[in-house]
Amino acid sequence: MTAEISLDGRTLAGVANDEDGDVSAETIFHFEQNGDRIYASYAGGEIVDGHLVGTFDGEQWDIRYVQLTEDNETATGHSVGDVELLEDGRLRVEDEWEWESKAGSGESVHEEVDR
User: In the chain, where do the E strands start and end?
Assistant: First the structure.
């Protein structure tokens, strides 16, 4: 039987991203989950303040995000990510994203960190 995955109380960081993205290894995401709804605040690297909301079915998230960068640019986008539980108990997300407020799309990877 597969363990049920929850994002609640977890902290993730960017470990890989395509060049059109703003998330970096310094970007830290703090998650909350209520049923199938997920929320996160994030900041770090070029991102001063970011928030995401979406749904999580236990295997995949579907989220929308909005953020403010150091040069006062606001941006919004959408992503769908596959969430997996690693052998050491941490989470890993392989995410396909697309900006909605500007041109660009790509793939990123996030992994759980201790913070």
Answer: 11-17, 28-34, 37-44, 47-56, 60-69, 74-85, 91-99, 105-112
